[in-house]
């Protein structure tokens, strides 16, 4: 997790992220050995204030390979064939990786899965 690539998001439909843009790979190392990766898009457009809790701001630096202030859109994970990966740009620093993980954990409700499974089990008892 945390590798930054230029990714081709086209073709897209409706409100899906479009065009070739930077993205971070969020799928795990084992999953990435397959032909697909899960990414989060990066945008240079300042997000609507309602989205600020679910984006991670990035400043360009030598390690991430970005050339403008940007934002990781953590509520738009997409799984693509690796052929959409155009060029490796750099790496996300560990603090930003942790921010992304925290937002994803909340967005995907990963911390509440155990409780929900218990609730489902109660239905069958």
Write a concise keyword list for the protein shown above.
7 strands, 3 helices, 125 residues, SH3 type barrels, 23% helix
- CATH structural fold name: SH3 type barrels
Q: How would you sum up the global shape?
A: globular
CATH architecture: Roll
Helix percent reads 10-25%
Secondary structural class:
alpha+beta
Please, how many domains? 1
**Ends apart, CA distance between termini:** 39 Å
The CATH class designation is: Mainly Beta
Radius of gyration: 16 Å
Please count the beta strands (DSSP E, at least 2 residues each).
Answer: 7
- What is the string of SSEs from the N terminus onward? EEHEEEEEHH
The tally of helices reads 3
Major sheet size, sense and barrel closure:
7 strands, antiparallel
Low-confidence segments: none
Kindly estimate the percentage of residues that lie in beta strands according to DSSP: 25-35%
State mean pLDDT (0 to 100 scale).
88
Protein name: mRNA interferase
Enzyme class: hydrolase
Function: Toxic component of a type II toxin-antitoxin (TA) system.
EC number: 3.1.-.-
């Amino acid at each position: 997790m945390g590798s930054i690539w230029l990714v081709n998001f086209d073709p897209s439909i409706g409100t899906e992220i479009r065009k070739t843009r930077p993205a971070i790979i969020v799928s795990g190392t084992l999953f990435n050995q397959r032909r697909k990766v899960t990414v989060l898009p990066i945008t240079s457009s300042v997000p609507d204030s309602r989205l600020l809790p679910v984006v991670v701001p990035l400043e360009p630096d030598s390690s991430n390979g970005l050339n403008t202030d940007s934002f990781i859109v953590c509520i738009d994970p997409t799984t693509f064939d690796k052929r959409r990966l155009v060029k490796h740009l750099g790496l996300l620093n560990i603090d930003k990786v942790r921010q992304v993980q925290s937002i994803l954990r909340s967005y995907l409700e990963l911390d509440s899965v155990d409780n929900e499974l218990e609730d489902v089990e109660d239905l069958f008892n």
